[in-house]
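Obj.: predict assembly geometry.
Materials: sequence records (below).
Method: joint structure prediction, all chains together.
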Amino acid sequence: MPLIRYQSPDDSSFLVFDVLRFRVDHGLFLLKIKPLKQSLADRLEEQRDWNLEAMKLFQENRRVAACLEWLESLGDDSEQVVIPDLKDEPAIDIVANRLIGEREYDRVFCTACEVEYQAGQIRLEPWAFEEDGVTVRGQRSLCRQEHIIHVQTDELDVAEIEFED
Ligand SMILES: [Zn+2]
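Observations (raw structure tokens):
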């Protein structure tokens, strides 16, 4: 089975933070093709009866379908590591957080310590970060040397802004 090399972008909800205090050394994950295809297929199935135009999901739906088609075309009979095209990355972004959060990948290269780890060597822990009244909560993945190689957000709280009269 080929493996798909994937690196998550910074979560857009993190852009509110001071990036010097808040740092993620995004790992290079080698995703297993089977769960990746399954997640994309599930996403399409979920959207089957939705009004995609109204929900502004038409583009996403096309991208997911195209990415799935590309993965199908790779076949099952090689051990190679495949780097996706830029156009396929947004589709993978949609499902990769959950796969990484469930350690559903083969291995990951930590760019900070330059060591490759098996999925089972990566520690998962609940995580929260607060700055200027904004709090995110979720889960993060740490390598053996405590580098934060992935962060996923499950909740975002913004304190209410008080306006002066
Ligand atoms: Zn590391």
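Conclusions so far: The chain has a mean pLDDT of 88.
To do: check interface contacts against the pulldown list.
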